[in-house]
What does this fold into?
Amino acid sequence: MNILCIIAAAAENNALGKDNDLLWHLPDDFKRFKSLTSGHKIIMGRKTFESFPKPLPNRTHIIITRDKNYKVENEDCIVVHALQEALNLVKDDPLSFIIGGGEIYQLGLEYANQMELTRVHGTFDADTFFPEFDKDKWQLTKEEYHPKDDRHEYDFTYLTYTKKQKE
It folds into this structure.
């Protein structure tokens, strides 16, 4: 079975970011994101891609934009104009990721069968939010709590969800 995994860090109020930037700095979460996504295709919206200083190493970036003239001069980047085009590019991959932003997560929920959600314990002022998802359609399979410490300003919990099979 091919796994299409949504990966995100969202606050308790589902805040993801503001002004195309993250709201917190959690080094362990960055490390986890890197280890999970390295070597795989990552699907994202244009604004998410543009929030990176440069393309992330060892990953193929699939960037969704409505702008038909949008170009990225990098062999690790593919520009598409709809989620369906992006999904066609990963359909034969054993594992691929949807990495944001809010609108792409919302569209991707229907197609994803796994979710790696880092729940940041706090509420934040944001302009981009993780979508509400139907908890009846997803099963929490793993939970790992991390208290705040000298490197992490907030408590957070890694939550792994698997989409329940339809009856």
The helical segments are 27-37, 46-50, 83-90, 102-108.
